[in-house]
Amino acid sequence: MQIQIQRAVLSSILFDPAQLDDIQAQLIPEDFSYKPHQDIFGAMLELKRLDLPIDEEFILKKSTPSHPIPQEEILNILSTSPIGDIQAYVDEIKDSATKRKLHTLAMKINEASNQTDNAAKEIIDYLQSELYKITNIQDNKSFRDSKEITTSTLKYIEEMKQKGNSILIGIDTGFHSLNEKTTGFGKGDLIIVAARPSMGKTTLVLNMAQKALDTGRGVAFFSLEMPAEQLMLRMLSAKTSIALQHLRVGNLQDEEWEQLSNASEIMANAPLFIDDSSLLTIHQLRSKLRKLKSQHPEIGLAIIDYLQLMSSANNKDRHQEVSEISRGLKMIARELEIPIIALSQLNRGLESRSDRRPMLSDLRESGSIEQDADIILFVYRDAVYKQKDEKEKEEAAKKEGREYKTAFIPKNEEEAEIIIGKQRNGPTGTIKLVFHKHCTRFVDIANNALEIIYEDTANTTQTEFIPPNTHIEMPTNI
């Protein structure tokens, strides 16, 4: 019965090769249970790729010792009547193929569970991974030949050309200057965003999440440190430009209430999903994200805040734990074909240096993180350290009974640096952003202010950021 159904599908393709367009999106050669049918369907796909006729003569030319195509089976297919409505037959072939894969998986699970050295959590994780592949991945071949890869690569280049040589080929980061350096975050990328506390790394990734939502992509956010409501407060503050502190206490003017209402309605309908469990292992994250992705295919970005708060299922030392977590995140990103952003803390030793800008060696348990990450971004705001230094000087003066007048004047808008410490497929370097403290938002300098550079009387270069539409008095010594 199954062989006859397969013959009917192959006969329909020979009768009307145009049907192969729809069928190849649903079936792969391995879905056919009869080996000659696998080879015949594979030959049909190859002929279509080469834009050659899909008929008896050309199919037989594709016969090889490793993939023999019996002429008598071609005759059997030709003698089978083609089907007008072929979808039911295609569904039957796919259903039988899925059952065979499940049967094979069941035998593997039975074998693994009978071996005492296999941990139950490892078996469950393997089961979930294989089930995800069976239900979501059409083609799971071990190898792709050079011809297929070259064709796919050329197709990719042509698609990029049709975009008009755009700098953006991945997910928009939300910042033009960062897009220019990274071309966006690609499918399967693991991006690490690292900084010392209070630098704004959570704010940065929330801004990136907002941009993804604005462009129609879904976002999964795993917050191990902050409740979901606090994250939403920050996103609403950034979206409305209402001071975060005012939102926290509900101190809003009438027009701000209207702004908040409009922004809340937009966010309520956004494909944003937040898991604010304080405890999370890499196995739990993988399971939750796979399930969410299967239910909401629009998920295009996942964020973890932050990596060092995660734990592994096994009792290992911290370096092994972090290694397992970072490798696991990279594998999940590739499996689900989405970029994953993971926040990371930095060692406090950098604060003893004269230049406190982070570098790769400052990452906690840096070896595995540095190896697995495709992009590593450091967030640095010099004003944070200046304010801290001035406060320490003020406290020291008080202890000595001296009066100290601080030279630091806090500003609502501060310069921030995003340092690209590593990029597997692009340049490293530093980009400048502006940080709006009151509404927890980073913006491109070009979107925030005009940059005026001049020389003062000491011949030192100074930079001021002047809000747009502000009258500018130029220095007389220019």
UniProtKB/TrEMBL annotation:
GO cellular component: cytosol; primosome complex
Keyword terms of this UniProt record: ATP-binding, DNA replication, DNA-binding, Helicase, Hydrolase, Isomerase, Nucleotide-binding, Primosome
Pfam families in UniProt: DnaB, DnaB_C
Catalysis performed (reactions): ATP + H2O = ADP + phosphate + H(+)
GO molecular function, one term: DNA binding
NCBIfam families reported for this sequence: DnaB, PRK08506.1
Annotated protein name in UniProt: Replicative DNA helicase
Originating species: Helicobacter apodemus
